[in-house]
Design a protein that fits this description.
Strand content: 15-25%
Number of domains: 2
Distance between the termini: 34 Å
Number of strands: 10
CATH architecture of the largest domain: 3-Layer(aba) Sandwich
Oligomer: single chain
Radius of gyration: 20 Å
Shape: elongated
CATH topology of the largest domain: Rossmann fold
Number of helices: 9
CATH superfamily of the largest domain: HUPs
Largest sheet: 10 strands, mixed
Strand order of the largest sheet: 3-2-1-4-5-10-9-6-7-8
Helix content: 40-55%
Structural class: alpha/beta
Length: 295
């Protein structure tokens, strides 16, 4: 079997919490559409297991119990979901091992739970999810909400005026074609500047025209909040909820020089607060500084 014949892979970090199991359920649905294998990763973190305090015999017993628990979990969930789950257990820092493992198996996606704004009790699926999003070379889907429809009927695509618009639209079209989704493009307008308004309006028209030409249903809307009543992230999340969104797609842009819109705090707020799954994509470094232009 050559590399082109190999099925894709989806990596799901698991800590046996309710939210990580919900993420696994979503990964199963995703795998059927993308025809991917699912690799379930359990990271044994010495920070939390207190393994540093054990002698060699205690460590061996701890590892044996951890492996037995993972094997039992894999066996049960494989039967529940009707899929062949592959297991990986590894030691180390949680977020580092998730990122590294995704690279090793050349994952199409990392799908992981997040409890939202992290607290001490939610350290695994809180702060680690954000660190994975920031450092991963692979797209990351974070799952905070507990109730999801099957499939992906509506993709929420927030757009701004950065050069990554073109790449994000192409990714959304790929998803929409696989799921038969409607792409709902939204831009949040926080200024009355006529130049910005006209430029954004032209871009939305171009994007909508391109998406429709690809055979995908599309709507496009500008949400105005020129008085700054809520944050950019809140506006996107509200729009997603009103539109019955199944997925919000954002570019994290950590490899670019831009300091506007979905960088830093806005991206984190969307990931932390949205009950709709969030797909975070790292833009491919480009020399092109243009805004969206039709292919």
């Amino acid at each position: 079997m050559n590399n082109q014949d190999k099925p894709g892979a989806i990596l799901v970090p698991i800590d046996y919490s309710e939210q990580s199991i919900i993420a696994l359920e979503q990964a199963v649905s995703l795998s059927r559409v993308f025809e991917s294998e699912i690799h379930v990763l359990n990271v044994v973190s010495e920070e939390f297991s207190l393994a540093k305090l054990f002698d060699d015999s205690d460590k061996a017993e701890f590892e044996k119990r951890a492996k037995a628990k993972l094997n039992q979990f894999i066996e049960e969930k494989s039967k529940d979901f009707g899929v062949d789950l592959k297991s990986i257990q590894i030691h180390g820092k949680i977020y580092e091992q998730i990122v590294n493992t995704a690279d090793v198996i050349d994952a199409q996606f990392i799908v992981m739970g997040t409890a939202g704004t992290p607290s001490l009790k939610k350290k695994f699926i809180g702060s680690n999810a954000l660190r994975v999003v920031r450092e991963s070379h692979k797209p990351v889907i974070t799952i905070k909400g507990k109730h999801h429809r099957k499939g992906c009927q509506n993709i929420i695509l927030p757009l701004d005026l950065t050069k990554e618009t073109k790449e994000k639209v192409a990714r959304a079209v790929e998803f929409a074609k696989r799921f038969g989704s409607v792409i709902r493009v939204v831009s949040v307008l926080m200024t009355n500047d006529e130049f910005v308004v006209n430029r954004l309006t032209r871009q939305l028209d171009q994007v909508k025209k391109y998406i429709v030409e690809q055979g995908v249903d599309c709507t496009a809307e500008i949400v105005r909040d020129t008085k700054g009543k809520q944050s950019l992230a809140d506006s996107v999340i509200d729009y997603g909820n009103k539109s019955k969104g199944d997925l919000i797609m954002i570019m994290t842009q950590q490899e670019t020089d831009f300091t506007d819109y979905f960088i830093g705090s806005s991206a984190q707020e969307i990931i932390n607060e949205s009950d709709i799954p969030v797909l975070s994509i790292i833009p491919t470094p480009k020399k092109d500084t243009s805004v969206f232009t039709p292919y």
